[in-house]
Design goal:
This protein is of the alpha/beta class. 33% of the residues lie in helices and 28% in strands. It has 6 helices and 10 strands. An 8-stranded mixed beta sheet has the order 2-1-3-4-10-9-8-6, sandwiched between helices. A hairpin with a 5-residue loop joins β8 and β9. α2 packs across α3 and α5 crosses α6.
Length: 251
């Protein structure tokens, strides 16, 4: 059975039912590895040898890719070796930022914070990409306050705009491809059930958006909008993950 290593950086952030179902359907055994903020998880990073891993999915979390946690350093080194070997990596939010740094890119604060649906501005390369083109409606849930540069040798697939706390807008990178691996600054795995958990467990993150936003209104709007969109989003993200596996020779 193929092993998929699922790197988790926060208790509420999971692979969710949609992506879990797709991977199990394609014969993967899911191996979680928790890298949380609290000790000892922030110190320890003990993944299986790369020759035992067919796929790595690195999820999001509240940490920064620039944090001086031993586990973050080791994760960056591990992803760097995986990418050099051609092991397929799917980096999501923080996972994408650590992946970008492993490839020589940088990660920095955006000046704002997003928690909700945002439009993706897909590049020509993104439209032509065999995996990313499965995102047929360029609207995706986000939860982040930092952004990555596009590493050397990678292809920019999508951009977006961040409303900064000072009222200005900043263009940021939202997706890239490196070989058979992808980094997304949005949440492709998100389901309505997981967003309901996030609204309960991560409610304080709405305060990070700044005083132009009312946290209660944003939480209600986020849930309301995603509830309507989620059936389509779930389908297109299932197609995207399946295409990712096929493109990597894993399905």
């Amino acid at each position: 059975m193929k092993q998929a290593l699922i790197i988790r950086h926060a208790e509420p952030e999971t692979l969710a039912a949609n992506f879990t179902g797709v991977l199990k359907q394609h014969g993967f055994k899911l191996e979680p590895l928790n890298v949380f903020e609290s000790a000892p998880a922030c110190d320890r990073f003990a993944p299986p040898p790369l020759e035992q891993v067919a796929l790595i999915v690195a999820l999001g979390g509240p940490q920064s890719a620039n944090d001086d946690y031993p586990a973050i350093h080791r994760e960056r080194e591990y992803l760097g070796r995986a990418l050099a070997l051609g092991t397929p990596v799917l980096g999501i939010c923080l996972g994408a930022q650590i992946m970008a740094m492993a490839l020589g890119g940088t990660v920095e604060p955006t000046g704002g914070f997003q928690f909700g649906l945002r439009k993706l501005y897909v590049t020509a390369a993104g439209d032509a990409d065999p995996v990313f083109s499965k995102l047929t409606i360029p609207l995706a849930p986000t939860l982040h306050g930092e952004c990555f540069s596009i590493p050397k040798g990678a292809t920019r697939l999508a951009e977006g705009f961040m409303l900064c706390r000072d009222g200005s807008y900043r263009k940021i990178n939202m997706a890239f491809r490196y070989g058979n691996s992808y980094g997304f600054q949005f949440e492709p795995q998100l389901t309505l059930e997981e967003l309901q958990t996030w609204n309960r467990e991560l409610s304080g993150d709405y305060n990070l958006m700044g005083d132009r936003f009312d946290p209660n209104e944003e939480a209600a709007r986020n849930l309301r909008e995603f509830a309507r969109y989620e059936p389509h989003y779930r389908e297109q993200m299932s197609n995207l993950l399946t295409s990712f596996l096929r493109n990597a020779g894993l399905a």
